[in-house]
Design goal:
- This is DNA ligase-associated DEXH box helicase.
- Keywords: Ligase.
- InterPro entries: MBL, Metallo-B-lactamas, RibonucZ/Hydroxyglut_hydro, Xnuc_lig_assoc.
- By secondary structure, the protein is α/β, with parallel strands linked by helices.
- Helix content is 22%, strand content 25%.
- It is globular.
């Protein structure tokens, strides 16, 4: 039986970036990438709470991510905030740092660190399919590519987004007397569902939970037009045949009782797992993920063909095995602090 792969980075790379209990540490730049607790200097890949936390001494991120963190944590979320646009390169200590689009949510980025002729790209969370609410993933050739593996099993092959939105609209037509209550994570997924509905020709007012309103405005500030929206307040009769978008937690809350016999939907990559849909009491599971599925993960590794693949979280065993069978040196880093949020 072969020995398990060594989880430690190669010596020639760990002087550039290496895993620690506080996250990915860059010695030459004296910063962490997406640290799970407050640190002196952090580079943040995107605004989801398992990657972007408040309390750091200094934060470097895209302008969009900084704006999202300001909305979520208050504008004093860090001692100092430094914006870095996609494609710009800056020296941080002894290393060069740049950010490239990750295709996950608005402002999401891959962070590439370069030093002594070597480069490592930490992709954060990413997806490869088109998303009308954020910049598309940009492949960055690097010696080491650090990938997530949230859906790192061959069973996870997500259907086309248009297919799932068409299922939602067919249900609205089929049950005009019922409200359609769609659970979607407040940052990224909710806005994506709204834009996909607009692209499918749905021009009606979409009603939203109050928890989404500030982030919806922020998306529109950055040029993502969401069309006519209104607060989900009023009598039951007002919502017959209407679509309401809310955080997943609201689906089981007293708040949801204001709607007439609602069809409960949930937009998540995990909705391909029937047991999860049943556990949540979801009548209309919508397989819409903001993460790469198995084919997107393997196609990305094939395209980039790095010297090493580091896997940060998720289903790392299958992806590591696939990489090794395809001639790529791979290891799991087992970083702590990243959870499966409902943005999946």
């Amino acid at each position: 039986m072969p020995l398990p792969a060594d989880p430690r980075p190669s010596r020639r790379f760990d002087s550039i970036l290496r895993p620690t209990p506080d996250g990915l540490w860059c010695p030459g730049g004296a910063f962490f990438i997406d640290p799970p607790r407050p640190v002196d200097r952090a580079v943040i890949t995107h605004g989801h709470a398992d990657h972007a936390r408040a309390g750091h001494g200094a934060v470097l991120a895209t302008p969009e991510t900084l704006a999202i963190m300001g909305e979520r944590y208050g504008h004093d979320f860090a001692g100092h905030a430094q914006p870095l646009a996609y494609g710009e390169r800056v020296m941080v200590g002894d290393v060069e740092l740049s950010l490239a689009p990750a295709g996950h949510v608005l402002g999401s980025a891959q962070a590439t660190v370069r030093q002594n002729g070597l480069s490592i790209t930490a992709s954060g969370d990413y997806k490869r399919r088109r998303d009308p609410t954020c910049a598309p993933f940009e492949p960055v050739p690097s010696d080491v590519f650090i990938t997530e593996a949230t859906f790192g099993l061959p069973v996870f092959r997500h259907p086309p987004d248009s297919h799932e939105i068409a299922r939602l609209l067919r249900s609205v037509q089929q049950f005009p007397e019922r409200a359609h209550l769609v659970g979607a994570y407040a940052l990224g997924k909710a806005q994506r569902v709204i834009r996909l509905l607009r692209e499918a020709g749905y021009d009606e007012t979409i009603y939203v939970h109050g928890a989404l309103e500030r982030l919806n405005r922020l998306y529109e500030h950055f040029g993502v037009m969401l069309g006519p929206l209104a607060p989900a307040t009023g009598s039951k009769a007002d919502f017959a045949g209407r679509i309401i978008i809310a955080p997943p937690s609201a689906l089981a809350d007293r708040w949801s009782r204001r709607f007439p016999d609602p069809v409960t939907a949930f937009a998540s990559g995990w909705m391909s797992v029937r047991a999860r849909a049943r556990q949540r009491g979801v009548e209309l599971p919508l397989v819409l993920s903001d993460h790469a599925d198995w084919d997107e993960l393997t196609e990305t590794l094939t395209q980039l063909s790095p010297q090493e693949v580091w896997i940060t979280h998720g289903r790392d065993d299958a992806l590591r095995r696939w990489a090794e069978l395809n001639g790529l040196k791979a290891r799991a880093l087992h970083l702590v602090g990243y959870e499966d949020e409902d943005d999946d």
